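agent> fetching stored inputs for the adenosine-5'-triphosphate docking request
agent> found them:
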Amino acid sequence: MTGTSQVRVENLVVERGGKRVIHDVSFSVTAGKVTTLLGANGAGKSSTVMAMAGVLPRGGSVSLDGAKLDGFAPDRIRRAGLALVPEGHRVLGQLSVEDNILVAALDPSASGRKQGLERAYEIFPELAERRRQSASDLSGGQKQMVAMAQAFVAKPRFMIVDELSLGLAPAVVKRLAEALKIAAAGGIGVLLIEQFANLALDLADQALVLERGRLVFDGSAATLKAQPDILHGAYLAN
Ligand SMILES: Nc1ncnc2c1ncn2[C@@H]1O[C@H](COP(=O)(O)OP(=O)(O)OP(=O)(O)O)[C@@H](O)[C@H]1O
Ligand SMILES: [Mg+2]
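agent> prediction call returned; pasting tokens
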């Protein structure tokens, strides 16, 4: 250990529907940096992060600063500091914006809830303006903000975002990307899945590329940008 906080994934194996979809994948996500996980549709990005978050069963090991998270339920993994924003920015439509955020707070005390909301609203002031509004009335981009605020409220050390921009307008995507940059600058380790590779590589420090469930690149985002054939190969493979 160099003293830098890390999530380490080692020899990850995932099976879905009786078929192996992730084959022996190992990588690290470092605090204070954005790491992007790229790959074609079906390459195994969501399976990887769902397995890391304990939502899917897996083989191999996931650890946070050397402490193994193996066998932990999703809630315990979140409490350990690893928060997943799942694909699809789903919210509880019958609840207000604020209640949507609060259901994800880990500290149920009045002061814990207050601090959690402050953290969430600091990153997304536009949600504070809409705190009493029903979440079902929000735009897609605002729903994604709520989904991300549900991660921020838990004061994560690491945050995984599965499909940041899916179906959203460019202006709001810019806002969401900015929030991730702020999070990383504040010390959170971000693992970003994003269908637009250029956007992801502009945001990211580090990059990972999956091809049919295997890791084919692990290095700096700048290196990957300079080697577009790796990305093209991965996107054509699936
Ligand atoms: N619920 C499921 N049951 C069985 N197999 C699944 C299921 N979901 C995904 N798979 C398979 O697992 C593999 C990896 O899929 P995964 O959703 O992890 O890829 P992805 O990279 O996130 O793709 P996308 O870009 O479409 O979100 C694919 O072969 C897919 O068909
Ligand atoms: Mg996916």
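agent> quick read of the result: The chain has a mean pLDDT of 94.
agent> awaiting further instructions
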